[in-house]
Amino acid sequence: MKTEREFFSSSAMPWRAGPQPGTSEKILSRNELDPEILTRLVRWEPGLDTSPSGLIRHEWVEEVYLLEGSLHDLTLDETFSAGHFAARPPRMPHGPYRTSEGCVMLEIRYRP
């Protein structure tokens, strides 16, 4: 299970380097026994392009809500902006992505 936390201000948390170059994150909650299972804010810097990594797949459910900026899906050739939402089951291919202006998203991961 994710760590129990009552309301707190995420604005007081510092941004830390994310696992991918060009990203930073604020981990809001995490399952310490399964660290891929988390809720976080993730920020992509302007100009980030994930195409060198190809399609993205992972073993958890992922829900993403764009809070700021925009993200261009290179496979779909479609741009998504603040207010767009995605729900992805395990192993669903998605991306790669490019963002010219950068973006901030809320990401929630869990296992089915």
UniProtKB/TrEMBL annotation:
Residues 6-106 form the ChrR-like cupin domain. Pfam families: Cupin_7. Signal peptide: none annotated. Residues 1-30 are annotated as: Disordered. InterPro entries: ChrR-like_cupin_dom, RmlC-like_jellyroll, RmlC_Cupin_sf. This is ChrR-like cupin domain-containing protein.
